[in-house]
TrEMBL record:
It holds the Pfam family TrbC. The chain crosses the membrane at residues 51-70, 82-102. The keyword Signal applies. Residues 1-27 form the signal peptide. Keywords: Membrane, Signal, Transmembrane, Transmembrane helix. This is TrbC/VirB2 family protein. It comes from the Bacteria. It comes from Commensalibacter nepenthis.
Amino acid sequence: MKKIFTKRNAVFLASFLMLLRSKTVYAASSGGGGSLPWETPLQTVMQSMDGPVAYAVSIIGIVAAGATLIWGGEVSEFTRRIVYLVLIIALVALATSVYSSLFSNGAVFF
């Protein structure tokens, strides 16, 4: 005799019941009052990444990170990874700034 109520059948039954009970959920629109609280600060950061201040800060960051790696002497592995992180962030900011100065539309963030 075959069991009808197995774990697998219980999972399928529970999934089917949840599917029947679910209601349609609509995504919030970007207009009106549906924006998330962190969208405005992120938009501000994205707009400031292509200005002259970002260009200057990224050049300073590249020089400082390069000097630390060249003349840093005995730095710990953690410090070296932080310096690499600063170097990568500075290069990304520099690339964004250079791209926006070469082309009028700036870098596109997805």
